[in-house]
């Protein structure tokens, strides 16, 4: 199964980008962009107009909430899913109220992340 | 010769009382402490004042109950000598008011009075005073009593300071635990996930040796994550942040799921977890995620501490609305002398896991806190034919 459509993966931790990136590849995503911080993310977002953004909440310099705001200023209907870990419940609630569509925990077993991402992709892309 | 009010020359200072070396040292520690004397009789005040000033205390004087209250706020004395018969509000009333305002932090209050009926003494102590000094004053006795009460007060202050320090240290420890656990969890989760990708061939086929290494990385990072989660739980619980959200759930389903998942592991040791559900599915108000955590802990313990090839029995008993889930293992049971440590933090008992598994010692302590948060109870009983039964009782 392959998905048409661009995905932007934003996380400051390399191991997360590698890990989530592999999962996305396994799910059939063909076009994947990465960014290591909020500022780069906005640059890539403006350039490539991805359909789905996976956005880490906890980043230095410019955090997920601020990046979410800027994305929403540019696009109201791009799907934005926050990447969180156990500690971030309050930030997640804030993100959801600011227009994030959902959240996925990145510190759960691979199968759970896989299932959550599969559902997210199926909901926002058409299948090739 | 007894020095009493009638024989004491009023205008002269008086020499300090004779003391042993120990008494001198103790008295030196009390120097400079503040004493508030309240008496409407000027003569009494001057006598007491001069005795006490000679001993190195800092004296403030007042002549009414109202003044007592004012001056107390102003100087915050370490001890109050309070006459009972006063114009306006009497000594007992002033004492009660001070205790009402300052509670246990109130300085010790000693009544000075000629009234010595037992009933009066009882009333004084009930009002919150700590002692009685009869008039006319016996100097040595009065000083001894005053010193004793001051020393008690100092001990109380030291104790409070220590407790505050301990509380702060405990909070700092919990914060540190929490931070460390969070910072370590994310990378570990990724390591575990990437190792899994290595094992399942996603990034290419591995040789048998490479696969073995990759498996080891996966399992090691998995058990580290479990320990970190437990550490985090402990820190959260101790910080008082354990919140449970109760909702009605089908207890049979919850137990069935936990049994199914834990049987996957049990299988590796040839051990089987057997659950015979009750006829009617009990609906219980509980926090699903937390009770699942408790069940996982009890079941994995039962498997860990039973020899390979064992049967672990799970049953639900009770009547609506309170139910009990019991897990019976076939291990060696809990030694009598270790019973009291069972549900404490970081203790592991002398029994060892039978398959070389790891034990962190935190699981049961967390289980107990979760069950207590549900207002239930968790117990362990050795079975007559060997093994142990852990029960969790969940009330309505």
Compile the SSE list and pairings.
The complex is a heterodimer of chains A (128) and B (396).
Chain A: E1 3-10, H1 14-26, E2 29-35, H2 38-48, E3 52-56, H3 64-74, E4 79-84, H4 89-97, E5 102-105, H5 110-124
Parallel strand pairs in A: 1-2, 1-3, 3-4, 4-5
Chain B: H1 21-30, E1 34-38, H2 42-54, E2 58-62, H3 65-75, E3 79-83, H4 91-102, E4 109-113, H5 118-126, E5 131-134, H6 139-199, H7 208-238, E6 247-250, H8 251-268, E7 272-276, E8 283-286, H9 288-305, E9 311-319, E10 322-328, H10 363-373, E11 377-382, E12 388-394
Parallel strand pairs in B: 1-2, 1-3, 3-4, 4-5, 7-9
Antiparallel strand pairs in B: 6-8, 9-10, 10-12, 11-12
Helix pairs in contact in B: 3-4, 6-7, 7-10, 8-9, 9-10
Quick summary:
Chain A is of the alpha/beta class and 128 residues long.
Description:
The complex is a heterodimer of chains A (128) and B (396). Chain A is built from 5 helices and 5 strands; from the N terminus they run βαβαβαβαβα. By secondary structure, chain A is of the alpha/beta class. Chain A has a 5-stranded parallel sheet, sandwiched between helices. The model of chain A has no long low-confidence stretch (mean pLDDT 88). Chain B is of the alpha/beta class. Chain B has 10 helices and 12 strands. In chain B, a hairpin with a 5-residue loop joins β11 and β12. The longest helix of chain B has 61 residues. The termini of chain B are far apart. At the A-B interface, α1 of A face α6 of B.
Order of helices and strands of chain B: HEHEHEHEHEHHEHEEHEEHEE
Total strands of chain B: 12
**Beta-strand fraction estimate of chain B:** 15-25%
User: How many distinct helices of chain A?
Assistant: 5
Low-pLDDT ranges of chain A = none
Per the principal axes of the C-alpha atoms, what is the gross shape of chain B?
A: elongated
**Mean pLDDT across all amino acids of chain A:** 88
Through-space gap between termini of chain B: 74 Å
Which regions of chain B are unreliable across 5 or more consecutive residues at pLDDT < 50?
1-13
Q: Quick one: biggest sheet of chain B?
A: 5 strands, parallel
Largest interface: A-B, 17 and 15 residues
Q: Could you state the oligomeric state of the chains shown?
A: heterodimer
**Mind telling me the C-alpha Rg of chain B?**
34 Å
Portion of residues within helices of chain B: 40-55%
Q: Which H/E pattern describes the elements of chain A? A: EHEHEHEHEH
